[in-house]
Task: structure prediction
Amino acid sequence: MDSILIIEDHEDVNVMLAEALTEAGYKVKSSYTGIDDVQEIKNNMYDLIILDIMLPYKNGDEILKEMREFSETPVIVISAKGLIGTKIDLLKRGADDYITKPFDLGEVVARVESNLRRTPKRLQGNRIIRYKDLVLDDNTKRVSIENIEIELTAKEYMILELLLKHDGKVFTKSNLYESVWQDEYLGDDNAVKTHISNLRSKIKKINPNEEYIETVWGLGYRLFKK
Result:
């Protein structure tokens, strides 16, 4: 059963969403303030998050920005702000979908189903990803090779996580920068190149005989073809 966290301060809206999603077969938890939600997302596994933007103590866009430092859980933003610029900004910050209030409950359930279908199954349920002798534990945010833990920075971890969760996909420097740094890519690829180089070096220290990250010349990076 997929689990969904609803972060919405209006109790009637929160209850209405929770009832509709529960009837659709989802496990639902409700939150109302935004205060402890980043920690809640860190400590518990959710398959999707419904996030209101206007919260009493911590805005939804701040929660979205902070959680994207460590999580790729799909996020559907709900907001009374229907301006195109607002939607574009939140989608760039890492939202997966955007619903404007007032909304139809049937549409919300359909959007939830659609976003969960697009989420790789490895992101749901089993949070341990294995590639060759490398293991990434998405619960503890630890990476190891041959049972030896690798000390990675947050951004090194996020780059590796992206590559592992999208096995075979080529990520351009622009893709990586905008996904990991959550900012517009302006053509300076030093940050990405440096982090890829450091990541490779740390992995190679443990297993110098295996290749993990491949450079696709003129395009970007992907997991090394087995």
Observations:
- The CA atoms of residues 10 and 178 lie 32 Å apart.
